[in-house]
Amino acid sequence: MGPTASGKTGIAIRLADEYPVDLVSVDSALVYRDMNIGTAKPDQDTLRQYPHRLVDIRDPEDPYSAGEFVRDAAAAIDAIHQVGRIPLLVGGTMMYFRALIDGIAELPDADASIRAVIDREAEQQGWPEMHRQLVAIDPLAAAKIDPNDSQRIQRALEVYRLSGRKLSGLQAETAPVHENVRFIKAALIPEPRSVLHERIEQRLDQMVEHGFLDEVRTLMQRPGLTAEHSSMRAVGYRQFWKHLAGEWEFDEARSRALAATRQLAKRQLTWLRSEADLLVVNPLEIDAFGAISAHLREALLLRKN
Fold first, then answer.
1. What does the alpha-carbon distance between residue 55 and residue 134 come to, in Å, rounded to a whole number?
2. pTM > 0.90
3. d(Cα 88, Cα 16) in Å, to the nearest integer?
4. Partners of 279 in beta bridges
5. Predicted local confidence at residue 109, as pLDDT
6. φ and ψ at 96, to 5 degrees?
7. Within this chain, do residues 73 and 127 fall inside the same structural domain, yes or no?
8. Of 5, 82, 207, 234, which sits 20 to 30 A from 169 (CA to CA)?
9. 140 phi and psi, to 5 degrees?
10. Residue 304 buriedness (CB in 10 A; 0-12 / 13-18 / 19+)
C-alpha cells in the first residue's frame, strides 16, 4: 500500500522477480480501459511481463464499486491460491483494501437518476455543503469523508436516499470476505511530506508531456461518456476535462489537478495511519525493497510453522 507517487509498482515488480507472487491491482482508476497516462498505469510491456489482475476490466462509461472490487479480488485471490502461488495486492485505493480485509456491507446498486439529482444540487451548492447535509443525516459516515471527496459524499447520500438507511449503519453489518486468509501488510510512506509533494508535481508534469491532455480529449469524444461518470472524477481527468471544455485555463486546471492529487495523498496517508499490523517503510531513508522482502520472508516462514 501507499500514497500516490510513492513507488508501489516498482517494488511490486521486484517482489514478483523474487517470490512466487501474482499481482492484483487495488486501484479504482486502473480498472478502466483507455485511461493510461493520467492513472500512471504500467505500460503494456510491463503488463505483459508482470500481469496485473483487475487492470483494464471496465470501460470508462461503466461504474465500478467497492463491492464489485471485493468480489473480483476475492475470486482472483482464490484463483492464485489454487495454482499454488501468493497474491500480491498492490495499489493506493485504501477503501478497497479496507473493504476486502474487513468486509463490506450489502449496499443498493447505483442509481443514475439519484446521482444526477445529487450532482445538480452539488453544482449549485458545492460539495462542502453536500457534506454538511451528510453530517446531519449520518455523522459517523461524514466523519470519515473529506468535505471535498465528491464520489464518497455522493455515494453516502445516494445510499440514504435509495434505502432510507445510513451508510454507517449498513457498513456495520459486515463480515470479512476471507476469514481464512492472512494479510501481510506493508506500506511505502515517503517522508518528509515535501518530497512526496515534489514527486507528485513532477509526475503530473510528465503526464502532461506524455500526452495526458490528448488522452482526455479522446475520452471526451466517446459518445456515452460525460464529466459526471465516476471514471472522469479521477484526479487529473476531472480538472483537464474542464480545461478542454473551455471552463478553465490550462494553468488553473494544472494547479487544481496538483492540489487534488496532494489531497488524495493526504487522505491515503490518513487511512494508513489507522491501519493495524502495518509495516511502514520510508523509501527515502532505507532500502524499501530489502525491508519489505525481509518482512515477507519472515512472515511466510512463520506461516509455514
1. 32
2. no
3. 8
4. 186
5. 81
6. -65, -45
7. no
8. 234
9. -65, -45
10. exposed
